[in-house]
Amino acid sequence: EQYTKLFKYIEDFRSEVNEKLDQKADKSDLDRLISTMDSYFGRLEDHDVEQAARDAKFARLLDWAREVSKKTGVPLPEL
Fold it and tell me: Is the entire prediction scored with pTM above 0.85?
C-alpha cells in the first residue's frame, strides 16, 4: 500500500509538472513575439521619419509664405 501511495503521488506530481510545461512559452512563441515587436518598432520609426519630413516641409512652406507676405505687403497671421 505504501508503494501504491508513493506511485500515485509521483504520477500526480508528474502530471502537474507536465501541465505547467505545456503552458510555458516555447522558443518559437518568443521568436514570434520578438518578430512582431521588431515589425511594430520599424513601423513606428518609419512614422517618425515621415513626420519629421512633413514638419520640415511645412517649416519651409511657412518661411516661403512669410517672405511672400513681406514682399507683397499682404499680412500673414502669425502661426
Answer: no
